[in-house]
Amino acid sequence: MSTSDNAFQELARIFSTRNNRIFEIEILPPALGPLLQDECSIGITKKYLVQAFVVARHIFYEYTNPTSGRGSLSATAQDEKESAAQHSDKTLSDLLTSSEIILLFDCEHLTACNWRRRRLEDLKRRHDLSPDGREPLVQALETELTLMTTYLCSPLHRHTKSPTLFQHRLWVLNQMLHVRSAEAIATRSLTAQSASRGTQSERISREPESTVDLLRSEFTVVLRAGELHPRNYYAFSYMRQVYSILSGVMNEAREGPSLLAESLIDLMLNWCLAHPSDISGWMFMLYLLEAVPKGDLHPNAVHKVVRYALDVGWEGESLWTFIDLSIRAFDLERTVEGTLRTFSGSIPTAPVVCYDVTGKETPASQSHWKTWLAMARTYWAGHAKVASNDPQMNGN
Q1: How many angstroms separate the Cα of 307 from the Cα of each of 234, 244, 251?
Q2: Strand partners, 18
Q3: How many Cα atoms within 13 Å fall on the side-chain side of residue 230?
Q4: Where is this region: Disordered (predicted)?
Q5: CA distance 100 to 95
Q6: SS3 content of the chain, % helix, strand, coil (to 5)
Q7: Phi and psi dihedrals of 299, rounded to 5?
Q8: pLDDT level of residue 80 (50, 70, 90 thresholds)
Q9: pLDDT interval class at 343 (50, 70, 90)
Q10: Average pLDDT, the chain
């Protein structure tokens, strides 16, 4: 057996025994060996992965190419309509494993990703979503979600920001919600005549809870992807789409969408303060605040961000841009000025002069975030002056 065959067989064994576990896969330097596994932690060298990919690609196209003589699952329009169940278990297993290895090497491989999607569509057509018939579909969807989590949450160069993987995950999540919705409707129809008002109240209270849990589960994946790839536009765009979909699910409850947003705000704010230079995170934080009705939540969140910036001396554009946009969106100018006015003169009365990247003067009206940063610098200067005049702080 060649080295490439060995590489494929070892990776195939790992993926075939995953059993819905979430792996963390990373690329190893050559000196550490071709492949290492410690429970759910997988390390593989780039060369070994390339060798496995070559074999996986050959197997995948051998089965899906109609001219190969081995049958096809998806090569032509007619073949796309055929069910994956018409093929042997060995063929299906080889295709599943080879497509997983292909996506591990190339996360933008649309052919492999689309084949996996068509297989799930085949399962959906074959099952009528009855309590007995839907189980294989649910298992397949859960397996696909955990596979996407493995890709998106592993320290791989491209996977954490892959639009193909995020869109595929969104499609799978939509199918899962459809299955759950069909099951809920069937359950309600069976119990409608005997349900009391108390039972109805319990049902309403359970539905938002499960939706919030699902939202937070997806949010955890997005935050991990955001940590691995800073300023991850694709991850937070995906989260906006998930929030929009789940808000539609909770439309029966008057405050459903705002409750979903509130459930994420504290987590998102803490994440942003831990990654203050991440503009994608700050913009999603602003998106969540805009989804919540006006109240104490807006000024409290912005006040916390301003206090953080003042305490650590943060001058980064992303954080101050968030502060500026929040002030304009929620009319919080007095709140922020009150926070900055700790020392006399911390709010400039003269026009604030700002500078662009070339050093040229820019009117403050064209650089709102720089205006607030200039006020913060005045605050820091006041602190420094007080510290220099305080004998105790100087050790005298």
Answers
A1: 30, 31, 36
A2: none
A3: 8
A4: 68-89
A5: 8
A6: 70, 5, 25
A7: -65, -35
A8: very low
A9: very low
A10: 82
